[in-house]
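MODEL INPUT / OUTPUT PAIR
PAIR INDEX: 1
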Amino acid sequence: MDQTPQPPKPTSAVPAAPAAPAEPVSTPTIIASMLRAHPKTSDLIFSPGRAPQVETGGQLIQLKIAGVGVLGSEDTARIAADLIGRNAHALEKLKLEGSCDISYSLPKLSRFRVNIFTQRGSCAIVMRVIASNVPDFGSLHLPSQLTEAAELRPGIVLVTGPTGSGKSSTLAALVNKINEERACHIITIEDPIEFLHSH
């Protein structure tokens, strides 16, 4: 039997095709994950150089979401584009003025008041969580004297206060009271629309 070593057979090594880049996690999936992470979240924040953050109890918390790490400027730009969608007015305002306000909703989950702004040449986003139910005077523990504002005919009522003090909720409760007690047309001027009132 011949024990002469045989030369190795030539192989045609074909380089493996580079792996396709993973699809980014969809914006609705990210938002839903952020809401589930902390039940008392008041704001969602997207900023380049940081992971998605939530504000709860006055504290900012960076979240670990599967498939989402530290955000780059391209990530926040993509999320902003998803939120704006086909809203040409908001897109134009963002380009000309550097910021825009819109509303955004995830059906059966939540509505948001969204501020998109540019800083250092990239987009950042703050999304304020809007309660699903229209608040009333009882749930807000408002003083009973304030109900008189819903009964005024002529004049003007000013509701003022710092961010997060309850201006939008108070106004929604006033509109809701008028809506429940009087047969009349109610016109609101809002940018963006926050609470949705039924007929």
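PAIR INDEX: 2
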Amino acid sequence: MQMIAYLRVSKPKQGRDGLGVEAQRETIRLFAGAHDIEIVQEFVEVETGKGFDALERRPHLAAALADARRRKCAVLVSKLDRLSRDVAFISGLMARRVPFFICDFGLDVDPFMLHVYAAVAEKERRMIGERTKAALAAAKARGVTRAGKPFTIGNPRIDDARGAALAAIRNEADRFAANVAPLIRPLRDQGLTLAEIAGALEARGVASARGGSWTPGRVAKTLRRAA
């Protein structure tokens, strides 16, 4: 039996130092060995799993699904939360009719149970978020900010907030480029033009940074940013 491995970490540092990735890879390796599964391809992503539209921000998962559809095989993931903790997202993946298996659940898990597990994981994530907000609100009431500095009424630090927002946008663009560039470079090495690469990315279902269609200019910009 052939399968495609998909691994994901949420933070760029985890992607750089291998923290989390190697543990997932080892789990998949052991599971594959125990069930006579051949891993024919591996996709590694550095991206948050939060949000029902997260697939548009995960080009490697989109590529894994396209490759699995082409090979007529399944996608193998170490844990359910490496796909998502969002029920709608899991349902959307299942609607694409590309089978996927979770090492934690084995090969004979009922599809309905995946929805149940995802619902539990989603509730757990929501509860963590609520506890975090409550803790921050309590700290603010005590006059302490998230950075541990006194909170001053009437001082919103607009410039700092604007700078942080711009930095977040740049980091998101850098992360997207770093994820997509490994898909683009082999095509470039094969001698494909930027227009041909744009067409190949469209055919694989890889969304651009803003969700629009790929153009030669966007391909070139992505490569420049990744470099």
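PAIR 2 NOTE: The chain has eight helices and four strands.
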